[in-house]
Structures are given as structure tokens and as C-alpha cells.
């Protein structure tokens, strides 16, 4: 019982003394927009919903920065239209 209590106290102290960003990594393996879009287009989720895309290119493609204004990645938004398939499947859309 003493070992469990000591371990619990050690665990709480360890994580309360470390700053939150000590365990985060602000690096990205994708350094440019083209690589980011290629990675998205190769993903299974993109391939699954590709038939619903209104346009092939993202509506929004912006860089993402952390609180120190360091570049950490990108964010992309694609517009999709479920209406075509929604009518064909009589109102059932499965995610």
C-alpha cells in the first residue's frame, strides 16, 4: 500500500512541476502546402469522401502557428455535398 501511495504522489508531483509544453512537440514533418495536400489526398478519409467534393481544391488552406507564432502545420477545409447520395440512399448517411 505504501508503494502505491508513494508512486501516486510521485506521479502527481512530476506532472504538476513540469510545464505543459515540456511534453509537446512543435515540429511537423510536412513543411509546405503541397506536401500537406498530398498527404490529405492519400488518406483513406479523403478517398472515402472524394465523390462528395464540390471542388477538388480546398476552400480554405491556412498555416497554423503556436502561441509563439512558430509555424506548426496547416489546416484545410473542403466543401462537400451529401445531397446527391442522400437522395439515392433514401435519407441514410453513414459516417
From TrEMBL:
Q: Does the keyword Signal apply?
A: yes
Annotated keywords? Signal
Task: Tell me which positions the record assigns to the signal sequence.
Answer: 1-22
- So which domain of life are we looking at? Bacteria
Record's protein name = Uncharacterized protein
Organism annotation = Bacillus canaveralius
Q: Please spell out the taxonomic lineage of the organism that makes this protein.
A: Bacteria, Bacillati, Bacillota, Bacilli, Bacillales
